[in-house]
Structures are given as structure tokens and as C-alpha cells.
Amino acid sequence: MKRSTHIIRLFFQLLFVVFFITCKGSEPAQKQEEQNPQYPKPGTLAPVETQKPNSDYKPAFEGQTRIAGIKTETPYEVSVIADNLVKPWAVISLPDGRLAITEKGGTMRIATTSGSLSSPIPGFPEVDDRNQGGLLDVAPAPDFETSRMLYFTLAERTEQGSLTAVGKGKLSADETKIENFQIIFRAIPYYDNSMHFGSRIVFDKQGNIFVSTGERSDLATRPKAQLLDNGYGKVIHITPEGQPVPGNPFVNTPGALPEIYSYGHRNAQGLDVHPETGDLWLSEMGPRGGDEINRIEPGKNYGWATITYGIEYSGKKVNEGITQKEGLEQPVYYWDPVLSPSGMTFYSSDVFPEWKNNLFIGGLSSKHIARLVIIDNKVVGEERLLESENQRFRDLGEGKDGALYAVTDEGRLYRISKK
Predict the structure, then answer these.
(1) Residues 196-231 pLDDT 10s
(2) Residues with catalytic annotation?
(3) Contacts for 96 with CB less than 8 Å, ≥ 6 apart
(4) Which of 49, 310, 338, 373 could be cross-linked to 287 through a Cys-Cys bond (beta carbons 3.0 to 4.6 Å apart)?
(5) Residue 321, domain member (yes or no)
(6) Could you tell me the residue range of the domain that residue 397 belongs to?
(7) Helix (H, G, I), strand (E, B), or coil: what is residue 105?
(8) Tens digit of pLDDT for each residue in 379-408?
């Protein structure tokens, strides 16, 4: 009897030791999750993309595409707070918490976070609003509360053709018009088509401006993305007056536009600065497949149309079907089939701790919002939001209240907020 009792006691002691060792061994992972609420538990969910890719290209490194899925655990609610916008293109918060929204036809609206809309606000030059053109992005100046100055990108229309332009104007005291609008930069040359204007505008931490442009789509203009004598397929870095930022990478390069910051882009409709690192990130559309997320560094060449993970709409290879080449940057992440990425924003609020520093991107043909978890400049998790809404998400931005606001080509204004 005593021997049996002793054996039982030894058995439970052994169980305790095993339990203790197991718990100690799991502490680092537990602490990592506690210290970093966005930790996505890699591999716990299947990749969100299940369709067959358009190409047979292989990624350059593990995790460059079709990363493991993640799911937001914080309860949230989705509301359509307005549904009568006319082809909205951009949404951004003003310092007082209201939203500035551009409409492609050449007007701006101001919306409250409850969805009340101002009348259309005029004051812009003629825009080429055919197809992908129009009045495009908007960003308030850092001193907007005193200057009331807003910066815009637009497809400027002239007898010579159209191009991506950057302009600024003052919101009148009664908020009924934009006053003294002036163009401060033009992505030359003019070209008579209505495709691939880009473009987004974002202020850096020094108060200067980054602008993305498209390469105008045509086979005749596509090669210009690789040349430095034009504004096609570039990221531009200018002062609030439209001058090249001192220290730009090509200011001393003969024949180069001194405003160029990076090149080799196709049609970049998403641009934002990481809230902690200050790094510039960009989304751009590929052809069939090959949509990209890139971390932009000065003077770098991002490859279009020499390398790409996409193919022509006809099914043929782009260039020679090359996806990697020395001296050309690889995308941090790419999609095949396409996301059709448009506007994007990094989330910086504490309202959704698990979203902190995550990147949210509006998908057009894919009709959802992509959430990317990025750690050490690598995508480690992807989630799809609002798939059931069946909308083309053109842009989204973070509100002062910690909610996400999104506009769609169909005219809706969404709020995604914590329950």
C-alpha cells in the first residue's frame, strides 16, 4: 500500500515538472504577443488568396506573396454614413475631425463623421475627368488651422493633352470655394490619353511633399518610367512651393528632373508615411497580376517595365518575363491575381491596438480592403475586410476618432469603428 502511494506521488511530481517546463518554454512567444498586440500568430490561418495566379512566376523570397491569413479580434462595426457622393477619389481628416473628400469631376466636399455632406466646393481648373483622370488626391497643409491651405493632385487638361499636376488653394472662410488655386508642379510631358495618372500626395515630417505619378499606360509612354527626363512613373519630392527638395537624389544629374525621388513605377495610387519609422511606402497597380507594395528609398529604381510579376492583359509576358534584375528593387509584397490597390493608410491610433502600424489598402477590382501586418519591413499577415459590400474601395483614411473612413467608386462613405 505504501509502495503504491509512493508511486502515485512520484507520478504527480513528474507531471508537475513537465507542466512547469512546458509553461516556461512558451513564455517568449506569449510575451511577444503581449508586447506586440499585432503579432499575427503566423501560420494559424490559410492565405486569403485562393485563386489560381495569372502567371507561373516564383517569388524572390519567402513571404513575398500569399502570406498567412489573420483575423481582427477586436469587435468592430461597419456603417455606410453617406451614399450620395459623386465619384469620390480621396478622403482625409481635417484637424477638426471632419473629412475632406474629392470628387473626380472637379469638386470637393466636407463631411462630418456622422455623414452630413457640404455642397460641392468649386475653385479648380479644368480637369481631364475621362476614365482614370479628374480631381484626385487632397491633403491639408501642416499649418492648415491657420493657413487654410489644401494641396491637391489632378489630371490637368489642356489643348496639348493632360498630365498629373500638383496644386494648392485656400479654403474660403465660409467653406464655399477654393480660393487662388495655383499649379505648383507638372509631371511633364503632356500626353493625350486618360490613363495612369497615379496619384497620391503626402507630407513628410519636414513639411515637404511626396507625390506619386503614373506612366500613362500606353506602350509609347511605358519606357519613360525608366528615364529620368520626365515625370512618368515616379515619386516626386517637392517643397510646399513646388521646388525640388534640397538633397533629392538626382539634383546634380545632367538631364534629370531634380524633383524625382524614385522611379520605375507603373500606376501608384497609394502613398503613406509609416507613423513610427518615417519610411515612405507605396502601392502600385501591375497589369494582370504583379500589384505591389514597395518601401521607397531615394534614388532607387523599382523596375517597371523591365521587371514585373504581372503579365500583359493579352496573356503575353511583359518585356522578357523577367522578375528580378540586379540594380532593380524587389517589391516587399505582391498580389497575383490583382488587388487593384488604390489609396492606403497606416493606422496609428490606440483605439484598435492590434491594428497599430498596420497598412490598410483599398482594393478596386478585388472589392475589399486589405489589411497588412508589417514587421521589420516584411508582410507577415493579410486580412480582407468588407468583402461582402461588393464595392470598389478607392481610398481610405484614419479619422481623428480612431475609426477608418473609406470612399468607394459607387459613391459611398464608410466608417469602420470599434463596437
Answers:
(1) 999 999 999 999 999 999 999 999 999 999 999 999
(2) 196
(3) none
(4) 310
(5) yes
(6) 46-418
(7) coil
(8) 999 999 999 999 999 999 999 999 999 999
